[in-house]
Amino acid sequence: MPKKSTAPKQKVVRVTLVKSPIGYSERHKETIRALGLRRMHQTVEHVDSPTLRGMLYKVGHLVEVVEEVEA
Q: Of 1.10.300.10, 3.40.50.920, 3.30.70.2580, 3.30.1390.20, which CATH number belongs to 11-69?
């Protein structure tokens, strides 16, 4: 019988840039870059954390977020 992993499953968040940060504050532009987004409709994946949630809250009007559970 295979062993079951006891490690908790990590939640992965998929973030897509759907609106240009041009015309928004420099802090919003820097947050988009810190998320790893460089161009429109680019998608990146991050492990969910409180820091990431804060960044997504700040630029939520510019990005689309999809949550997934990684097996």
A: 3.30.1390.20
For residue 56, the number of C-alpha atoms closer than 13 Å in the C-beta half-sphere is: 19
Q: Decide: pTM greater than 0.85.
A: no
User: Helices (DSSP H) in the chain: which residue ranges?
Assistant: 26-34, 50-58
From 7, 24, 6, select the one nearest 63 (Cα to Cα): 24
| CA angle centred on 46, ends 23 and 6, rounded to 5° | 160
Q: Is 2 helix (H, G, I), strand (E, B) or coil?
A: coil
> pLDDT (tens digit, 9 = 90+) per residue, 11-55?
999 999 999 999 999 999 999 999 999 999 999 999 999 999 999
